Amino acid sequence: DIQMTQSPSSLATSVGDRVTITCRTNQSIADFLNWYQQKLGRAPNLLIYAASTLQSGVPSRFSGSGSGTDFTLTITGLQPEDFATYFCQQSYTTPYTFGQGTRLEIK
Amino acid sequence: QVQLQESGPGLVKPSDTLSLTCGVSGYSIRNSNFWAWIRQPPGKGLEWIGFIYYSGDIYYNPSLKSRVTLSVDTSKNQFSLKLTSVTAVDTAMYYCARVGTSGSYRYIDSWGQGTLVTVSS
Question: How much is the pLDDT for A36?
Answer without folding.
Answer: 98
